[in-house]
Design goal:
With 258 residues, the protein is of the alpha/beta class. Helix content is 41%, strand content 16%. The strands form two sheets. The chain has an eight-stranded parallel β-barrel, surrounded by four helices. A two-stranded antiparallel ribbon has the order 4-5. The structure holds ribose-5-phosphate (R5P).
């Protein structure tokens, strides 16, 4: 278990930059992920960990890639249906065969299929514990639900209480510190919709300063003007505590050098 976790959380800083590219499991070929071989594989060495599906791992990621892989382990509904109606989508034995560092599962607190999604997580925790496989619980928020500190404290704490080894959740400007403080396992910040690069770097900076053990970002990296520059700037924020303005300068410099 500790060996796997150290393929996710950089042992030198205790933090992680996860590059999330698993969007296709419910929304198909997302902008920026149409050609993972061309757009993502070249920048993967800048991440500590890739978060993806087994289909992409088997078909596109070269077997020579030895950093951490966090495997999407829940799924079912597409964007055309009720998203909380997920089931477990990977057998732990295939995850072991793929030599992944952790399994990720959505948990829909307050969602229509809340109990089913919590049960997916607890089943994966039970299976993972047999093999030293950590489980990442991803707090999924329904479009009509309010993203407040109160909600995220509730969702993250439930995931941790029921066995998740770490939790992915959204940054909120007010009270994020109370979310990280009341969750007994590490929290990684989710990225969310594409925003301006400086804003995304500022959000990542605030999240780690307020207790997050890193980030799990997708669109704000692979939809940036320069994904390679952006992931390096995010990494400097997470691992070197670079302040947002300097990280943005670094982003612009690296972009210009391309
Ligand atoms: C979300 O819950 C899924 O895991 C996503 O596919 C992904 O992690 C989202 O990343 P981002 O919101 O940073 O694009």
């Amino acid at each position: 278990m500790k060996n796997r976790l150290s393929r996710i959380f950089n042992p030198e800083t205790g933090r992680t930059v996860m590059l999330a590219i698993d969007h296709g499991y419910f929304q198909g070929p997302t902008i920026g992920l149409e050609r993972i071989d061309l757009n993502i594989v070249p920048i993967a060495p800048h991440a500590d960990t890739l978060m993806l599906t087994r289909g992409i791992l088997r078909s596109i990621v070269p077997p020579s890639y030895t950093k951490g892989i966090v495997l999407r382990a829940s799924g079912g509904p597409s964007i055309l249906k009720e998203l909380s109606n997920e089931q477990i989508a990977v057998d732990v034995e295939d995850a072991l065969r793929l030599n992944v560092a952790a399994l990720a599962v959505q948990v829909f607190i307050g969602g229509e299929y809340e109990t089913q999604s919590v049960h997916n997580m607890t089943r994966l925790v039970d299976m993972g514990m047999c093999y030293g496989m950590p489980i990442l619980a991803v707090t999924a928020v329904g479009t009509k639900m309010k993203r407040s500190a109160r909600y995220f404290r509730l969702a993250c704490r439930i995931c941790a209480e029921l066995g998740a080894h770490y939790v992915k959740t959204y940054y909120i400007p007010k009270g994020f510190e109370s979310v990280t403080a009341s969750c007994p396992v590490p929290i990684v910040m989710a990225g969310g919709k594409k925003m301006d690069e400086l804003d995304a770097l500022t959000m990542a900076y605030k999240a780690v300063q307020e207790g997050a053990a890193g980030v799990d970002m997708g669109r704000n990296i692979f939809q940036a003007d320069s994904p390679a520059a952006m992931i390096q700037a995010v990494s400097a924020v997470v691992h070197k505590n670079l302040v947002p303005d300097q990280a943005h300068e670094m982003y612009v410099d690296l972009k210009e050098q391309e």
